[in-house]
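Hey team,

Filing this mostly as a record. A colleague (T.K.) asked me to run one chain through the structure pipeline before their review meeting, and I want the input and output archived in the tracker in case anyone asks later how it was produced. No errors, nothing strange. Just documentation.

Input sequence:
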Amino acid sequence: MIMILMAVTTGLLFSLLALGVFISYRIFDFPDLTVEGSFITGASLTLVLITGGMHPVLATLLGTLGGTCAGAITGALHAAFSISRLLSGIIVMTALFTVNLYILGPGGTIIIMDATSLSGMAETAALSLFSPGLQADLDAMHLFPKDIVIFFSLLVIVGLAVLFLRRFFATHVGLAIRATGENDKMVRAMGINVNVVVVLGLALANTLAALSGGLWAQVLSSVDMRSGSGMIVTGLTSVILGQALFSRARFRTQILGVVLGAVLIRLLISLILMTGVPSEVDKLLQAAFLVLALVLPRTLQKRRAAQAVR
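Output structure:
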């Protein structure tokens, strides 16, 4: 039971990252590798500020600004200097490696006490919300009150993020971002500054990635330079799976589909790991699921087309 709860919790954490990838990949068709670095930027800035005595909530909000700046720089490189989309992301991702190493300090690792983070706040809330008898019952089921509070807290945060994005993309600015991804020439003809729209969209995408990193680091109470490895694959897998599940749904529903895709991926990986497979193959499993999510729908579509011809 505890593994399922942790899998869903991890899926919710990474769903914020996936929502950021959804904006860059699905809306802009922009292979933005910046998220590999902005995820760690958000995590490292958040923990550094917490160790400096700042309140965890404020530290998390300020930590996300690091991702906002990173995404804006990527967008500016592409929009202002006509650097290709892929290269823009690679340049900023490479630069962030040094920036993150500088933030983390010697050793490239930060470990904090639970009491000074959102994880500690969740533990304090659990002690006041759950009676001793209920805590004993949960312990018998191998569930920890703190993990339950963290799960519901993330559920609220992700729910608010989904609600915000659904409302935002219904505004004039959000519609301009979506239109730019569909046809930037048409948007230019309407007198909209496409460069500004691209910068704004990538800034928002990497803000979500940094927020995901900041929350993830607090749940683990640590962060190191290797933590961001493969995050683009994690986000893409969730996006592709969500798109496969809700391919014919409206845009607003597709946003929710990304969250469900992130949770489903973590559940599948956890179920596989529960069979005794070493945890070191986590990234390999994510890559395999990404390949399946990309190849399987196309294969099925070709078979249907071939059957229709017959």
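Quick notes for T.K.: The two ends are 48 Å apart (CA to CA). The chain has a mean pLDDT of 89.
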